[in-house]
Amino acid sequence: MTTVLDKIQHHLPADVLRMAFNAADSAIYGKCRDLKCRMGAAVTAALVIDDSLYYAWQGNVRLYKVHGNEAMLLTTDHVVADAEGTFLTRCVNGKGFRENIPVMYEELKNTDKIFICSDGYYRHVHLTELPGNVTVNFEEGTSDDYSDRNLFHIIMRFMKCLSGIKNDYFEYNLLYSTFGKNTIESRINSLRPSFVEIAKSFNINSNTQWIIRTYLASKMILASSVLLTSAQYAKHKNLRIVEPYLLYYPLLSCARAVIFTNPYIEWNDDLPSMTHSKTINIIGDIVANYDREKGEEIKNIIDWAREYREIYSYKFPANGLTGHLVKFDQVVTVCRLLCELAQLQSAILESSITKHVTQKYEIDKTEVMRTYLYGDKNFQFIDAEDSYRLGYIQRKVSRPYSIINTMTEGMVEDFFGAWCSDSDDEDEYNPDANWRIIFPVP
User: Which of 257, 328, 351, 426 has its C-alpha lying 20 to 30 A from 170's C-alpha?
Assistant: First the structure.
């Protein structure tokens, strides 16, 4: 008798998942034809092989990886929200798929856990309190025996870290676990008046400015992701000479993302080229508004990484790397926190504009062009991808949105794809691997 394993054992993991989706779609098509009806479902599927997790999804069933005391959302909801409600933009409904279903990869540690959750958990479970420091004991009972009660408490602790901002479905897991619910709500209330003031005095200049700022913030996050996965690859290949660079610039870039989306930082020609020292000081001050000690800690971490990178730019120790190199996991955690801060600020911006701006404004094309013009005295060039993406925003929405809503699947795929090799050698650096390392990009 032929089994399912017999049919898939010679296929790559990505192909197995795509075969599963196609089989499900065909089954739904047959049932719809038999019953003369329409039906569909949001689906997420995961395949674990040794220390590798492969996953794909269509719709809004979410996949979480729990590592230590931190939950990381690996999927992005395929939904669109309007005045009438929230609707799926993708699902398995017997009509085939518009494009080949992307399959993502995530590395797993021995103690990592994964959870696949419908919106019955993450949207309809009411949380009255979210602890500032989350600790989960996975050893209750047997290590592999999770009752509904245990799973419920895990979900209760880790999920639903929502801002309460209208139409903001982003989960601020690290923000809430670091600062606590009361602090986050207090900061939202402090930031909102400044964004409301921006929205109430909206014009072509502010429309252009905040489109550029949210776009640049989005790119800083994408760039940081590429830098961090490059650092992983470099360490694996013993290309350690680049590690000080690859671990410092993600911190700096994520700090810039926060600064770009902060309403108190004025827009001027110097903002995109702000000095490193000024960037580090400002990000310390911004985080200090949530917690003074945390602000000082993050400022010191980034400045430490900057100083360590510079010794290899000027004097270059003959003994190679030392124990002073910042830890990779520490850098990732700080970057994730800063990404969530930037996203939160941009979500308040989006909400304020949606509520208070009642007309459509044009965009200053000259100002936008400066965003994708690179170089100075020695050379200059126009980045065609930047030009296309900003032109897309101008044509399709013509207003600023939050970072997660500024990022489109095409934008993300093209950004990471620009760093792909033309070779089919699987041993080469793959920017698509672990591209959600610090942010749940679409």
Answer: 328
